[in-house]
Amino acid sequence: MGDSGEGLIDAESRIEERREELQAERKLSQKPSKKNPELLRQLDSLGLARTQLTRQLDGATHENRRMQITNAITDIDLRIAELKQEKQR
User: Fold this and answer.
1) Mean pLDDT for all residues in the chain
2) Domain tally, the chain
């Protein structure tokens, strides 16, 4: 029975992540930055990688693999944050 509740939590977190991604995409489309197109390309690439890893995490059953994917997502989040700070300069 505990697994069904876990599935609901995962579904809710995926919905929230997608909502945040859409908001970030809207902000980027509203404020096109012509200062550094390479920076925008990197942000887009990292966002796509994060989405792919999130999907892999949903299907992963082995705990070690889940940990690897979670660490990779955390690393990508840090890199995205660094690039966004660089973009604001």
Assistant:
1) 83
2) 1
User: How far is the C-alpha of 9 from the C-alpha of 14, rounded, in Å?
Assistant: 9
Instruction: Find tokens 């979670």 and name the residue.
Output: 70
The pTM of the full predicted model, rounded to 2 decimals, is 0.61
Cα–Cα dist 64/72, whole Å: 12
Instruction: Domain of residue 15: give its range.
Output: 2-88
Please name the residues in contact with 47: beta carbons below 8 A apart, sequence gap of 6 or more: 21, 24, 80
* Count of other CB atoms within 10 angstroms of residue 69: 19
pLDDT, average across residues 67-89: 91
Report the sign of the C-alpha dihedral through residues 38, 44, 50, 56, in that order: negative
